[in-house]
Fold Small ribosomal subunit biogenesis GTPase RsgA.
Amino acid sequence: MSRPARGRAGAGKQAGKAGGAAVERALVVAAHGRHYVIELHDEPGVRLHAFPRGKKSECAVGDHVMVERMASDQCVIAGIEPRKNLLHRSDQFKSKLLAANIDQVIIVLATEPGFSEDLLGRALVSAEALHIRPLILLNKTDLTERLDEARARLELYRGLGYETLALSVHADPAAALALLKPQTAGRSTILIGQSGMGKSSLLNLLIPGVDAQTREISAKLDSGKHTTTFTRLYHLPGDWGDGGSLIDSPGFQEFGLHHLSEGMLERAFPEFRPRLTACRFYNCHHVNEPGCGVLEAMAAGDISPRRHQLYTQLLHESRQQKPW
């Protein structure tokens, strides 16, 4: 991926002009392809349709950008301010930006339909690589037929130190809200997960008037020409204290991490990290080398074969030719 353009940091409208238009700071609150909705920093609540200058589309929801007003309800994105981080997924051919400048990833799972452990593992690796706090959320605990199975599958991740919440948005929304409020207040959080895990119900619980906000954003994105599946940012209620935001992303079935290097991958497995210095060879790949600290820990039962299998699959993918 090419580097995003860098805009000038600063509050409010800039004194200088670019192309004859005043430059203003804004937050990207929705994205679909090359179409964006931005919220002006100086005019909270004012949202405009925005598009990038040139052919490349390198903005993500959560980006702070510099914009030039082209019309009363439209603007062009002139630059992107430096990011704290950028969460994205990628395959061999393309990259999909998810969100920028986030503090937390909530991985939404459910007892039914069954969740993909491969996607869970990939989401955790992505968060670890960016030093973003992950939180695993098991929804639909009122559907008890497969509840014990789901809890058992998550024991591995609890053992690795990942925090897990179990709740039912439908059966006990008050209890769910009580669990989630302290986890999200004051943080920029993205919800990710497969379709059918209950992310929409979660949004309706956390964001008052979410349907109206979604319709407003859809109109700004000109949803007649686009699907209704787009990434969007919602501000958490003001009475939560320190504010914060919640970013909703479309459900997905694949989470490619082709952009992570081998060195980034091995360090994104917390159970690997203490063993990396125990390898006999400095360039050990932790696959089948003799004297490998990771393989020895797996043989001793300290590293799960399921986790090592995910690592070897991601390592294989990272070695594929990257045309971008």
